[in-house]
Amino acid sequence: MRIQSGGITFLLSAVIPSLTAALSFDCAHLNVDKYKYDLSPLGGVHELYHVNETESAVTNTTYVLNICKNLGSKAADRGDDGKCGQTKRICGFVNRHPTDGNGSKRFGFPIVGLDHMGHGSMEPELTRLAAIDPDTQGVRVRLAGGEFRGDEDEGKKKETAAVIDFVCDPNRSGLEGLVTKEDSADADVDEKNRRREENGDQTNQDRSLQFKSFGLNDDDSYVLKLDWRTRYACDSYQRGKMNSSSSWGFFTWMIIILFLCIAAYLILGSWLNYNRFGARGWDLLPHGDTLRDIPYIFQDWSRRVINSLQGSGSRGGYSAV
Question: Considering the entire predicted model, what is its pTM?
Answer without folding.
Answer: 0.63
